Amino acid sequence: MISADHLTKRYGSTLAVDGLSFTVESGRVTGFLGPNGAGKSTTMRMMLGLDRPTGGTARIDGVPYAELRHPLRKVGALLDAKAVHGGRTARDHLLQLAHSNGLPASRVGEVLEKVGLTGVARRRVGGFSLGMAQRLGIAGALLGDPEILIFDEPVNGLDPEGILWIRTLMRGLAAEGRTVFVSSHLMSEMAQTADHLIVIGRGRLIADTTVSEFISRSAQRYVRVRSPQLRGLAALLNGAATGLSGDHLRVPGKTTEEVGEAAAAAGIPLHELTMVEPSLEAAYMELTQDSAEYTAVAS
Ligand SMILES: Nc1ncnc2c1ncn2[C@@H]1O[C@H](COP(=O)(O)OP(=O)(O)OP(=O)(O)O)[C@@H](O)[C@H]1O
């Protein structure tokens, strides 16, 4: 489990992380979402002991990262895939990492196999594509067979095959009971990968919820209803601020049960009764629009 408790980071006049408190549970993929500059990377860096909090704490199974006895056996992380010595081969890079962390060299072959890099293990990392570098970074994260995995924007710049591979891998790691914490600024990607969402904006917590709960909170959800007696139905539901739109009514703030029962009680036949959910993107934009660091100004 990872926990943040009033976690705060200030850089000069910028409050990058502003009193964040949440926990990341094991056995599921938790998506860490927020617009650019929201404070995701800074939060992850503090979890990994790479940045010192200005206030509050980040803990791994109850202790600060710096106090872990065998950090790589507990937490594996992918922060910046390109931050690897380009002159080394993939295999040498992992051997070095294993050696300096007291891990058996036999793990190197295993993780190379797991990420599909066995065939290029003796090639220099400098010539790797972004997708290969991401795989190598993930191999490094898996080296210590850790219970907890932290991935910062792992699908950035990847092609659809690479994205699918990473998604499948993350889901598999969570299914094994591990804690998987993954950041992204892409809602649609997270919707397909994550079970749980932590959404931040301007360093503050906006939501700590499941994907479906996140959507249902959106004010853009409404009941779409068609009836041969549309005007009568509109009059009946007037209190619910209905909108007549073409051949149907839009009723925000009510469930399909409420609309259906009200119509039945008044003897009004219905030809359609549908809950229309906003797209995940729309719900996300709605919740984060005031918290983007740079918001387009309408001219
Ligand atoms: N080392 C630093 N010095 C000064 N300001 C920083 C530093 N690192 C981050 N910031 C600022 O802190 C804020 C949060 O940045 P951070 O990189 O954590 O956001 P993010 O959510 O990861 O964004 P992105 O999706 O663009 O990577 C931004 O305003 C950023 O400019």
Automatic annotation (TrEMBL):
UniProt-recorded Gene Ontology molecular function terms: ATP binding; ATP hydrolysis activity
Highest rank taxon of the organism: Bacteria
InterPro entries xref list: AAA+_ATPase (IPR003593), ABC_transporter-like_ATP-bd (IPR003439), ABC_transporter-like_CS (IPR017871), P-loop_NTPase (IPR027417)
SUPFAM superfamilies (alphabetical): P-loop containing nucleoside triphosphate hydrolases
UniProt cross-references to PROSITE patterns, sorted A to Z: ABC_TRANSPORTER_1, ABC_TRANSPORTER_2
Segments forming domain ABC transporter: 2-227
Family affiliation: Belongs to the ABC transporter superfamily.
UniProt xrefs under PANTHER family: ABC TRANSPORTER, ATP-BINDING PROTEIN
Protein name per the record: ABC transporter ATP-binding protein
Source organism of the structure: Spongiactinospora rosea
